[in-house]
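Here's what a typical entry looks like (DUF479 domain-containing protein):
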Amino acid sequence: MNFLSHYYFDRNVNDCYFILGTVLPDLLKNADKTIILHPEKLHHADPKVNSIVAGWNKHLEVDRHFHSADFFTTHSHRLKKQLIPAIAGSPVKPFFLGHIAVELIIDNLLLTTNKVTADDFYNHLKQCDIHVIDDFLVSAGLTNNDRFFHFYDGFKRSEYLHTYAEADQITYALKRICMRVWENPFTPQHETLMTDVLIAYRHFLLPDFMSIFTEIESKLSAA
């Protein structure tokens, strides 16, 4: 799941460090894909750091339920098949594209149906003390945090998740993600055709997209 989908499950939580933890695995991956941390069992003297750890573990649990759900398997496969003609000649793997596109469409739907607001999400991140985040990262084994904090500052400053409310920006977000792996993933024609597919699939998902959140919430409650 993407940032706003993870935030949905804890949108009523007032602990900014827990909220940060629920998206921190993806923030680190976006900042530097070579960063690999396993703080799942970390216990720190500072309860704020422990809140980040708890949020981190919640992220892993939600992702585990999401990626094993029929909803994800079905829709990522269908979307992959629909995107294949749109990206003919592109080096991007259709499976990768279908996976990420489903997650971005869900974030778009959460925003456009007012299930979450990007402002609330960013306000949580802005409340977190950088020194607490640094303590977490160092304790988790990441001693050189410069690259992460450079990315994190830009992430908060740009507030680009607001753009997910615009359907055509889903294509742009996909392109940016793919550019981490492929230098020139899409032509302008690819992007136009992808946007048509993504907008149509967004309308297809709209009536039933909340079912995945209901399913995951049920599994979280049963754990």
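The mean pLDDT is 95.

More examples are in the samples folder.
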